[in-house]
Amino acid sequence: LNRDLWCLEDVRDVIERHFVFWQIFRDNLEGEHFVKFYKFTEFPCICIIDPNTGEMLKQWGFMSHVDFMKEMHEFTLHYRFESGGRRKSFDFYGLSRVDFMSRDKPSAVPVLEPTPEPLPTPSPPPSPEPESEPEPAPEPALAIPDVPADVQPGTVHVTFRLPDGARHIGVFKQDGGCSELYRWLAIYARMENHNVMTAFPRVLVTDDEDISVKSVVGGGARAMLIVAEKED
Question: CA 109, 45, 36: angle at the middle one, nearest 5?
Answer without folding.
Answer: 95
